[in-house]
Amino acid sequence: MRLKRIHHIAVICSDYQTSKDFYVRILGLKPVREVYREERDSYKLDLEVNGQYQIELFSFPNPPARPSYPEATGLRHIAFEVDDIEEEMHVLAEHHVTVEAIRVDPLTNKKFTFFTDPDGLPIELYER
């Protein structure tokens, strides 16, 4: 195999409008395309991350809950690289998003922290 990069990350939300607001207004991701698929009663919103990667935000009627803490089996979390972690934490606090205390990666000495989206999906900020 010759994988080039991650093409997209898909996230299923329980409340489409709440999650759309979170990812667009609070995290600042840019909407690329929004589609409503009537046959599935489902929205799909493609989001751009700094012109590079794409997150697909899906809604489905009554999606089942699943464990979402960072140590659960499966996809652990989404991580975003930032220049200044304290500055980004301040922005999140202005939007009443609870953020964990800053930790330091013992292997890289880089700062990181976690918060969650409206459905409890863990999101990491990692200072470059």
From TrEMBL:
Give the PANTHER family listed for this entry: FOSFOMYCIN RESISTANCE PROTEIN FOSX (PTHR36113:SF6), LYASE, PUTATIVE-RELATED-RELATED (PTHR36113)
Name by which UniProt lists this protein:
VOC family protein
The family database entries (InterPro entries) matched by this protein are listed as: Fosfomycin_Res_Enzymes, Glyas_Bleomycin-R_OHBP_Dase, Glyas_Fos-R_dOase_dom, VOC_core, YwkD-like_dom
Q: Which Pfam families match?
A: Glyoxalase
Keywords from the named record: Metal-binding
Q: Record's CDD domains?
A: VOC_Bs_YwkD_like
User: Would the keyword Metal-binding be found if you checked this record's keyword annotation?
Assistant: yes
Q: Which Gene3D superfamilies match?
A: 2,3-Dihydroxybiphenyl 1,2-Dioxygenase, domain 1 (3.10.180.10)
Q: Which residues form the VOC domain?
A: 5-128
